[in-house]
Design goal:
It comes from Erythranthe guttata. One of its GO terms (molecular function) is protein methyltransferase activity. This is FAM86 N-terminal domain-containing protein. The chain is of the alpha/beta class. It has helices spanning 2-7, 12-22, 27-37, 44-55, 60-80, 87-99, 102-108, 157-168, 187-194, 207-219, 250-256, 273-284, 305-317, 354-357, and strands at 112-119, 135-142, 177-181, 199-204, 238-242, 260-264, 295-301, 320-324, 346-353. It folds into 2 domains: 2-108; 115-357, Vaccinia Virus protein VP39 (Rossmann fold, 3-Layer(aba) Sandwich). Helix 5 packs across helix 6, helix 5 crosses helix 7 (102-108) and helix 8 (157-168) packs parallel to helix 9. The model has no long low-confidence stretch (mean pLDDT 89). Bound molecules: S-adenosylmethionine. S-adenosylmethionine is lined by residues 151-152, 155-156, 158-159, 182-185, 204-206, 209, 243-246, 264-266, 272, 275.
């Protein structure tokens, strides 16, 4: 396409603009990348790229409310800077005005489809873990309102961080049996499968979250097998289990026998923490051929320091060794276009049994 050639679709600003749009970032963020892409202006070529690569490809069923909001802002932005708006954009906006009432928009908005694009840094090009296209795209059905009850249906920043950690250090997870607690939308499991963990089990205590997680695995061409009957060593299969921390039995926990345990944004509710620590201890406690034993990686936003300190005190009592890796671990930035996400707000902990360290 002439517009693409003229502007260079491999330019970082192009990748950031399209990735931000597909992730449903606020329209202002996408518009600011669009301006960077056009060298300071939203030129006709930039509008054509947005039209072909973002709007025309989007499914109204999933993104209608966002498309309507985005187009309104985009058109206003072009008009206010004296630019000429493409006819296609006006026509599309007019059709959304007619077909999408605000009521429909807010209902449709309760679940949306976001594409999270992990953009591999230049230095990883050509390595085994880097896809040929330079990006790994993950489709996620999620709720837009984080406070809407089913917290597991939103994407939380710690799972973005844990995913970046997995992609930065694939050797820690390749050929390992991985088990995640409080998996939410399933993003971490999709990344584990991408780096070829030998088997991946995701768990959550909330049934609607588990149902949504399975939809996401299927959207990303992974099958969700039956843990009792299907082979655990299938790279295209991710198992989902219901595991409420309060009622998980020791026998059940020991039966998973993972090499690596993961968790993102699970340290926030003080009343759940004794159960969570018991679950982590159970998963870390099993006879393991590897002398160093299983290890857990937990990513967490510290919203309340007392809650974190309570977790650390419970972990110490359970004879777990918690090491803060935040400062010593350089996690690559695969998500430079997500302006609302900041790696610095997240801490990464490594947890293992004291008896395995001594
Ligand atoms: C804040 S969300 C984080 C979800 C996901 N890990 C992420 O970072 O996007 C917390 C998750 O833990 C799950 N969870 C909370 N309390 C739980 C419990 N007592 N037992 C099992 N799962 C629980 C929730 O259902 C939810 O999926």
């Amino acid at each position: 396409m002439a517009a693409e050639e003229e502007l260079g679709i491999s330019a970082p600003s192009y990748l950031h603009m399209v990735s931000a749009f597909l992730a449903l970032e606020p329209p202002d963020v996408v518009i600011s990348f669009a301006r960077d892409f056009g060298g300071g202006y939203i030129t006709e070529s930039v509008q054509k790229c947005i039209w072909h690569h973002c709007i025309a490809k989007s499914d109204v069923k999933w993104k209608g409310a966002y498309l309507k909001r985005f187009l309104k802002k985009f058109i206003m932005e072009i008009e206010s800077s004296g630019g000429v708006v493409l006819d296609e954009l006006y026509e599309q906006y007019a059709s959304y005005m007619i077909s999408l009432q605000d009521d429909d928009a807010s209902k449709a908005n309760s679940r949306v489809l976001k594409t999270i694009s992990f953009l591999f840094p230049n230095e990883s090009y050509g390595t085994v873990s880097c896809p040929k296209s330079g990006k790994l795209e993950v489709q996620l059905q999620c709720s837009v309102n984080m406070l809407e009850g089913d917290t597991g249906c939103s994407i939380w920043p710690s799972s973005l961080f844990l995913s970046e950690f997995i992609l930065s250090f694939p050797e820690l997870f390749a050929n390992k049996r991985c088990f995640e607690v409080g998996s939410g939308v399933g993003l971490v499991g999709i990344c584990l499968s991408y780096v070829k963990a030998s088997n991946v089990i995701l768990s959550d205590g909330d049934l609607s979250t588990l149902a949504n997680m399975k939809v996401n695995l299927e959207l990303n061409h992974l099958s969700t097998g039956n843990i009792k009957s299907d082979s655990l060593e299938n790279h295209d299969m991710v198992h989902c289990v219901c595991l409420p921390w309060e009622s998980a039995s020791e026998d059940n926990l020991c039966s998973f026998a993972p090499d690596v345990i993961l968790g993102a944004d699970i340290i926030y509710n003080p009343s759940c923490l004794p159960h969570l620590v018991r679950v982590l201890t159970g998963l870390l406690t099993h006879e393991h051929p590897n002398a160093s034993g299983p290890v857990a990686y937990i990513a967490s936003v510290v919203r309340n320091i007392d809650t974190l300190n309570y977790f650390l005190a419970l972990a110490e009592k359970a004879k777990l060794i918690v090491t803060d890796l935040t400062e010593s671990t350089e996690v690559s930035n695969f998500l430079p276009y997500l302006r609302s996400y900041n790696q610095c707000s997240i801490r990464l902990f490594r947890i293992c049994l004291a008896s395995k360290v001594a």
